[in-house]
Amino acid sequence: MTLTKEASATTAVARRSRPKLRRGPAADRDSRRRSRRGLTHWIVLALLALATLLSLFPFFLAAINAIKTAEDYTAHGPLALPRSFDLSAITDFWQNVDYTNKLINSVLISGGVAIFGTVISLFNAFALGIGRIKARRALLVLLLLATTIPQEALIYPLYYMANETGLYDTKLVVVIISSVLSSAFGTYLLASVLSSFPKEILEAARMDGASRWQVLRLVVVPVIWPTLTVLMTFFFIWTWNDFFLPLIMLTSNENQTASVALGSLQGQYTSSPTSLAAASLMGILPAVAFFLIFQRTLTRGAVAGAVK
Amino acid sequence: MTTSAAVHREARPGPPPPKAGEKGYAPYLIPGALGFLVVVLVPFVMNIAISFTSWSGIGTPSFVGLENYQRLIHDQMFWSAFEHSIWFIVAMAVVPTALGLFLAAVLFDYIEPRFGQRASSSLRAGLYLPQVLPVAVAGVVWGWILNPYGAINAVLEQLGVEDPPNWLGDTSWALPSVMAVLVWMQLGYGLVIFMAGMARIDPQFHEAAELDGASWLGRFRHITVPEMRPEIFVVLLTTTIAALKVFGPVYVLTKGGPGDATNVPSFYSYSNFFGSLQVGYGAAVATILTLVVILLAVVFIKIQSKTEGAQ
Hints:
A: about 300 residues, B: about 300 residues, MetI-like fold, globular
């Protein structure tokens, strides 16, 4: 009984799948179905394009309202395309918060972290990945655990120590803390890269009498340079975007980063919507510029960071 | 006798290079170890110590034992902060992962074969762009769009809605509004990782299933989702941890308000540290948060290794 049922089921499947393989009388029906499917393709594409536009809409809104006059804004609302062209909102914002100074601070701090963070990561990874120090697994696990600790659980003692050492409200303290914190990820990434470093190259260098420092500087660094630049890009952008640490450590106007300056605007300019749009645009532009310049590095890095 | 033999063996110049190697490499760990000690380990221990004291940040802290933790148990603000964390996990981990996976599959094996790689990668870039914005900037942009006279309410008024809500200033609307902003910010992260992962799936699986007459949704459910399990795990883990730690968006958009409508543990500890100067209490909140985050990470990883072992 069961056997026949199964057998009939198989033949049914075979019968159903046969017309697909055979070209011929069914071709007409096929092409009609294909055109209907073609329409579905376009509908799916249109829906996705709509979702993407929605995701980009805030960028667009900031851009069109930053270059309007205040009168244009009040008369036609935030959604209308600008009928006037006026950069005064942008220049006002720029002068009010001394944005040049904020950008320089951000570049200095982020650049410092990119360099120091990468150097610390490289040294750690050299010892762990190539030196294969005992307990390296334990050390790597410790580092991973450290990255999960919320900054809130470290910030008050750090704030206190910074005050005691006179480093509070200096760019240096942010560079030091951020370099160490980001080197946890950097060490992890570079150690895994270096643990598969070709042994022959290292041995050849050692045979030639190279010291460890020479091996690091003349052999390892040139070979993994592309990875190091990815890491530097990462650290630069992370630090650029960082908010919590500079918010707490940099109180004076002259040391603040662009990110913190923009973050503390909220609620200040509610009476002048075009100024807020201008501020938004000035925050968006560097981020989008980084994105366009480093797009490949960043997406590759996001994936590497996730699968690490 | 034995010890001297051991010493003798160790001192012998010849081959055993690993030991000698280890010693030579150790100095390279000094900057990292020193930094780790000063920036992570000592502050971490100090924070736990502070949580057992009553301290305003000035003068000497006075030891109070478990008092801060006993107070936490009865503190309505503390519990509501963790309750909001669950909503932030929904907005930052659950929804972006589910939606990101679906959109990634549509882009990868629907749009790309039919409209080419250029179409799919520009759509991907557009959806990813919010991810690159600094939190503070995203906050300013949305704060401006959501303010009572902002873009959203301008649209609603044009559509004839009278008296549209004050999105960030209304107790019942603030949390959903912040959640919506976070979904917008987080979507691109999972999307990019899932699309990279999908390149790994053997196209023969899909081809075979297609020949068997499987629909797109069927293939998504039975091939894409199971094959993407490692990526889904990583994205869920990292975004859930990020959601528990969330600070920037809350600070910039609502400062935890109105009232405590969007208060979260990290913001609550911050406001105890630097607002009400109850440093000991803030440290206790931060310690509990750390515990929850580490516990969650361990549970996640346990589950993952169990399912891997089962397969």
